[in-house]
Design brief:
By secondary structure, this protein is α+β, with helices and mostly antiparallel strands. 24% of the residues are buried. Helices cover 32% and strands 13% of the residues. A hairpin with a 5-residue loop joins strand 2 and strand 3. Strands 5, 6, 7, 8 and 9 form a 5-stranded antiparallel sheet that branches. The chain starts with 16 loop residues before the first strand and ends in a 24-residue tail after the last strand.
């Protein structure tokens, strides 16, 4: 399986920020958002940055907050220029779109057997790099199957192996004979494929176990990916059962190029949905909020 990088940036080892003095208005916004406290205003009330010896907690976080916050576009960082960045959408328009995306998102379990254009997938994964992650460590990696024939191949191998394990009375964790039979029965109605929900494509975020906020980073990556797929007119479904199944098959995990020291607990199937939903659900009355007051 080919391994590629989305939005990778070539870095000069310690070349951090370039500040155009004539553009800097001395507002100090950059000094108040830099998590590494690298920026300061000099005697001329112009932004400068301290020298650093490393990237990370004790140096530059590579977060690009300085580039993003400067109102005049005076700061370029890590070889990236402000004029190449996206600008925020109008809040009123963005709020309406995001409200509808969240209210109308569904878990899709039936898909067309059709490849999503690779350019669309590449674009979505590039935007996904902006998802929050602990300390901006950017440790999440992805296993991607972007071809329906390859996905069918994996689907057939895994199902054949699982059927043999079931015959031996071996089940994925948290499942027993009855729950597995329920999933098999559901293949006649809701999901033609109980393992991968018939998805033509698969995305598995994974991160080094014990480093940073690896579990939260994976969950956030999945959540953002699902919304991005929905925004581009694709269906998606978050899945954990398929990973429980793969845990019974260590050799297949190696084929998926997931390092042994990496955690993975959620996958996303995605593609063009066979069934589209006409409207969102109405869950306002289900909201359970405890409002705290201390004074």
């Amino acid at each position: 399986m080919e391994k590629c990088k989305f939005g990778a940036v070539s870095l000069n080892e310690y070349g951090v920020a370039e500040i155009e003095e004539e553009k800097c208005i001395g507002c100090g916004a950059c000094t108040r958002v830099c998590p590494g406290s690298l920026l300061y205003l000099n005697a001329q009330h112009k932004a400068e940055h301290h020298e650093i010896s490393e990237f990370g907690w004790n140096g530059c976080w590579k977060c690009q907050h300085c580039l993003a916050v400067c109102p005049t576009g005076a700061i370029s960082v890590l070889g990236l220029r402000p004029e190449d960045s996206l600008t925020p959408p109008d809040p009123q328009e963005a709020a309406q779109v995001l409200d509808r995306l969240i209210a109308c998102r569904r878990s899709h379990r039936r898909y067309l057997r059709k490849n999503v254009d690779y350019g669309t997938i590449h674009h979505i994964l590039g935007i996904l790099q902006n998802a929050p992650n602990g300390g901006n460590k950017q440790l999440v990696e992805y296993t991607l199957i972007d071809d329906v024939d390859q996905m069918d191949h994996l689907r057939q191998i895994v199902r054949s192996r699982l059927d043999k394990l079931i015959d031996q009375g071996i089940y994925p964790r948290s499942y027993d004979a009855r729950s597995i039979q329920d999933l098999i029965n559901a293949e006649k109605t809701v999901r033609p494929d109980m393992i991968f929900c018939q998805a033509p494509h698969l995305l598995i975020p994974h991160a080094p176990r014990g480093k940073g906020c690896w579990q939260q980073d994976i969950d956030i990556a999945c959540t953002y990916a699902e919304l991005l797929f929905a925004a581009h007119g694709l269906g998606a479904v978050m899945m954990s059962f398929c990973l429980d199944v793969l845990d019974l098959m260590p050799d297949i995990k190696e084929i998926l190029q997931i390092p042994k020291d990496h955690d993975y607990h959620m996958a996303i199937g995605f593609g063009y949905p066979e069934i589209r939903y006409a409207r969102g659900t109405q869950k306002e009355n289900d909201l359970n909020v405890n409002v705290l007051k201390f004074i």
